[in-house]
Amino acid sequence: xxxxxxxxxxxxxxxxxxxxxxxxxxxxxxxxxxxxxxxxxxxxxxxxxxxxxxxxxxxxxxxxxxxxxxxxxxxxxxxxxxxxxxxxxxxxxxxxxxxxxxxxxxxxxxxxxxxxxxxxxxxxxxxxxxxxxxxxxxxxxxxxxxxxxxxxxxxxxxxxxxxxxxxxxxxxxxxxxxxxxxxxxxxxxxxxxxxxxxxxxxxxxxxxxxxxxxxxxxxxxxxxxxxxxxxxxxxxxxxxxxxxxxxxxxxxxxxxxxxxxxxxxxxxxxxxxxxxxxxxxxxxxxxxxxxxxxxxxxxxxxxxxxxxxxxxxxxxxxxxxxxxxxxxxxxxxxxxxxxxxxxxxxxxxxxxxxxxxxxxxxxxxxxxxxxxxxxxxxxxxxxxxxxxxxxxxxxxxxxxxxxxx
Length: 405
Ligand SMILES: Cc1cc2nc3c(=O)[nH]c(=O)nc-3n(C[C@H](O)[C@H](O)[C@H](O)COP(=O)(O)OP(=O)(O)OC[C@H]3O[C@@H](n4cnc5c(N)ncnc54)[C@H](O)[C@@H]3O)c2cc1C
Known about the structure:
Blueprint: E1 16-20, H1 25-35, E2 39-44, E3 56-58, H2 61-69, H3 72-77, E4 84-88, E5 94-98, H4 101-104, E6 112-114, H5 116-127, E7 132-135, E8 139-143, E9 149-153, E10 158-161, E11 163-166, H6 173-179, E12 186-199, E13 207-213, E14 216-222, E15 228-236, H7 242-245, H8 248-258, H9 266-275, E16 280-287, E17 293-294, E18 297-299, H10 302-305, H11 314-328, H12 334-353, H13 368-379
Parallel strand pairs: 1-2, 1-11, 2-7, 4-13, 11-18
Antiparallel strand pairs: 3-6, 4-5, 8-9, 9-10, 12-15, 12-16, 13-14, 14-15, 17-18
Helix pairs in contact: 1-5, 1-11, 2-11, 11-12
The structure holds flavin-adenine dinucleotide.
């Protein structure tokens, strides 16, 4: 039978889509697909939109996406005004104290840094009245042998959609169902990290303090004057600790072992790690795939092209990718639409994933010599970078897609 790759007109039924994952990419994609006339369902394995995690950056092209979504002002109000970044030696003495932008390449008055939960909440609020959300559930099977995608849910439901999207993060199950095991696409960058919140007993305010020894970093990030700080523990590990990825107890044990002899505030951080109920642990990795779709199913955000936190661009890629994917489907069927999505987005992804080679990892040196060199560079940092910031963030001029039907 000939497959027809055309959007149905407004006289026919609404096209139905299912999105797996309600974090950043999922709700952003839901917003734009709803705008283009799709009936959207989002399934999320958690009981609600998950709000935890380290603050995130929205930069360059992604700022234009949130502006077009009408949430830029709200996010500007939530902007974290981080004023100081202090680096410490292993003994706790100071290496240098600098303005954060001089390290991140951020641009004053343009880039946004917000609590991850403020962004997920703004995205969810922007779509929840127009989109069906299924929490506490997930896709069990996908079958594309019929005219659409037949989906069974873990919760027992069974439905058919015109298209399905995996916005289910770096360890995407949608990707695994379509393309097979993650190892084929996973590019491990040699580090693991844990983030969690703990009490701000340090008197920190609007600042980050980072302690380093070769191959290890511990940071406390005080977003405001709150009584909580974000704790961050990052360490080099040549091979990914695969067995720990699905086991929070093993993650705690591993981090505790790696930092066992560390000084400064690290012992208190390890004690807090034991009780933290919002631990986020992962390898520092990228996902690189030769293509992002198969039949009527496509991937977006970390599921397709996680760039790693070393680039600071994971959230921005998720937002831009969601915009480009939905826009590519605004007036086309899935075959032409998915091709246009890749064509319009792949270069932007590549240049941003390439940022890891440009210095992200230099923040976390693994040898004493490299750490000394980094510290020298930090001591000599003076100027805030030029106003254009890092061009990779703005490497895509956002197209305008078909108007709202
Ligand atoms: C709670 C949380 C905290 C985070 N904290 C950090 C952090 O501190 N530092 C950092 O670098 N990155 C963190 N991230 C990842 C970061 O949000 C992403 O790198 C980036 O924003 C891209 O977003 P995404 O929507 O593509 O993927 P993600 O933000 O990873 O979202 C994936 C979503 O899919 C859901 N999901 C996963 N599997 C299934 C399934 N089988 N069925 C249904 N739903 C599923 C997840 O619960 C999640 O809501 C965190 C992610 C989460 C979910």
